[in-house]
Amino acid sequence: MTLPTLTERERAVLAAVIDSFVRTAAPAGSRRIGKEYALGVSPATIRNTMADLERKGLLSHPYTSAGRLPTDLAYRYYVDALMRWGGIRKRDQAKLERELGDAEAGGVEDLMGKAARVLSLLTGELGLAVGPTLATATLERLELVPLSSEKVLLVFTIESGVVRTVYVDVTTRIPRATLQAVSQALNERLAGSAISEIQATLRERLGDLSFGNRGAEELMNIFVHSGPDIFEWARREREIHLGSAAALTEQPEFTTSERLRELLLLTERRELLASVLGDRGGSDGPHVTIGAEHGQPELDDLTIVTANYAVGSLQGTVGVIGPTRMPYDKVVSIVDWTSDLLTRLTP
After folding, report:
1. CA atoms within 13 A on the CB side of 299
2. Which of 13, 70, 157, 235 would bridge 74 by S-S if both were Cys, CB 3.0 to 4.6 A apart?
3. How many CB atoms sit inside 10 A of residue 311's CB?
């Protein structure tokens, strides 16, 4: 997006209007801006500058006697050209380190859920966290563990130390020696390949294997014919964890029952959020999308701020969703710091 060229005075007035609106949720008039911000010019000059900013598409005028409101373009200009971020309050750092440190022992999933909840608490927005993409990850090892005469546990060890398990029903008890033989054969054919590649070529990889043993043949038949189901966890892995929406309900944008209902419906639209977040996997540093930039009408009055974290060579995403009227400096700094912390905490 090409941003308009602004004079220093226009930049100062725009920053003041955005700050005022973010704090008060009320349109900003020239008298208030002149009184609350040391711009060194008269209210009349501020009013004329506001009119210039409106002509450039950065401010809107809801009705004749009202002050001005920032547009999505104004927020984009602020994020790209005016925002200063990089540090968060010590007490917020301590809160994140304490809460996420306690969740570290529970693995990546527990960390994601806790990160989303803590981000909601610290930013006043709706926190979100997305697990790493495992479909493109490499399978390092597969192990078959007997549980009972009717169940076998498949243990998948993926790159970066991520582990996933799947329960498989069998019709007869399978000796441990047979399970070890099948595990060895599966590892010879599957280990070292990406999960998505394994799913696509499972029949070709395993179709010619033969053991001459009923239990082993049953397991191989399950793999060959139910392979896509066995690896379904990889396709669904980018599950979106959301924090509490209660923080957003306190914001003026969601005081009406209709807007609140739309917000709650949005939290159920995980596939919509996943599609919007799907393009952020390769971005470095914080990523901010505002209003219509999302390409989804349901998100036209919302902002999404995210940053990626690393689990070894894999990547996940953490961030927040909130109204476009957002304290961007604070939110971007917290999200960025949280992503760095998650990278340090995950194996």
Report:
1. 23
2. 70
3. 24
> Mind listing the domains of the chain with CATH numbers?
8-82 (1.10.10.10), 90-133+238-345 (3.30.450.40), 139-235 (3.30.390.60)
**Residue linked to tokens 């043993």:** 213
CB 125 within 8 A of CB 321: yes
Contact 245, 320 (CB under 8 A): no
Q: Nearest-CA neighbor of 53 among 1, 7, 21, 2?
A: 7
Backbone angles phi, psi at 72, to 5 degrees: -60, -35
The three-state secondary structure class of 135 is coil
Distance CA 85, CA 248 (A): 23
- pLDDT tens for residues 129-185? 988 878 888 999 999 999 988 899 999 998 877 788 888 888 888 888 889 988 999
**C-alpha closest to that of 114 among 125, 133, 128:** 128
Query: Residue 105: pLDDT above 70?
Result: no
Predicted confidence (pLDDT) at residue 237 exceeds the cutoff of 60: no
pTM score, whole prediction:
0.81
What pLDDT is stored for residue 284 in this prediction? 77
Residue 110's Cα: distance from chain center in Å?
15
Question: Which of the 8 DSSP states describes residue 81?
Answer: I
